[in-house]
């Protein structure tokens, strides 16, 4: 018979001490699983809010970069073709964009890969990158092309050569825009703050300057396109593509 004065077995003592230690820890810090869950939830909300603000800042920066790029491309394209009678008839948007990149008319920061120019065709991308949705665009997301008025309302990448004389109008196409950036860019560029000489704005194949089968909107550097038209057209195709069409030569008076 075991002596009642003998100590408890060592294993039982160790288990008892560990269990007591765990209970003491929770009591010491006063933390429960429910409280931990609340803290983690608050951290998640804060992280989401910070990330949303950062994303909005990035998007705004890209829009400003695009506005600056369009203004420079329009100005320098006119200078490049001054004395050349315009863009040669039948020249594809691929060739025109390549030539303008090689001549630094399109800013170098929009060049997809410098090595492309060394071995083949120079390709330009918008500040949003080289993708349209989930698909990488082989010939770039920014194009410059000759434009024949009245023959097409499609963007540069679907435009077909027409006419017999050098193009006296040119388009700047941006692919892969989300709805918000499509609206913001079209609104800004079509206002008096945009480059002069704008005569057409084509959003997802719809000419908002002349109607042309879609909602009529004004775009003459004197009045921005109507907000309801921008909302309707920029939301038709996601992501959106926008083409701004300009006169090659500005009126002298």
List keywords for this structure.
alpha+beta, 7 strands, two-stranded antiparallel ribbon, 253 residues
Describe the structure.
- This protein is an alpha+beta fold.
- 41% of the residues lie in helices and 14% in strands.
- The protein contains 6 helices and 7 strands.
- It has helices spanning 10-29, 33-81, 93-102, 114-119, 179-189, 227-234; strands spanning 131-132, 135-136, 142-147, 169-177, 198-203, 206-207, 240-247.
- The strands form 2 sheets. It has a 5-stranded antiparallel sheet with strand order 3-4-7-5-6. A two-stranded antiparallel sheet has the order 1-2.
- Strand 1 and strand 2 form a beta hairpin.
- The radius of gyration is 31 Å and the shape is globular.
- The model is unreliable at 11-17 (pLDDT under 50).
What is the element layout, followed by pairings?
Blueprint: H1 10-29, H2 33-81, H3 93-102, H4 114-119, E1 131-132, E2 135-136, E3 142-147, E4 169-177, H5 179-189, E5 198-203, E6 206-207, H6 227-234, E7 240-247
Antiparallel strand pairs: 1-2, 3-4, 4-7, 5-6, 5-7
Helix pairs in contact: 2-5, 5-6
Query: What is the typical, i.e. mean, pLDDT?
Result: 79
- End-to-end Cα distance, whole Å, is 121 Å
Radius of gyration: 31 Å
Helix content: 40-55%
Question: How much of the residues is beta strand, in percent?
Answer: 5-15%
Q: The biggest beta sheet, please?
A: 5 strands, antiparallel
**Quaternary status:** single chain
- Main sheet strand line-up: 3-4-7-5-6
Q: SSE order in H/E notation?
A: HHHHEEEEHEEHE
List low-pLDDT spans. 11-17
Query: Helix/strand-derived class?
Result: alpha+beta
Give the strand tally: 7
Describe the global form. Answer: globular
Instruction: Enumerate how many helices there are, as a single number.
Output: 6
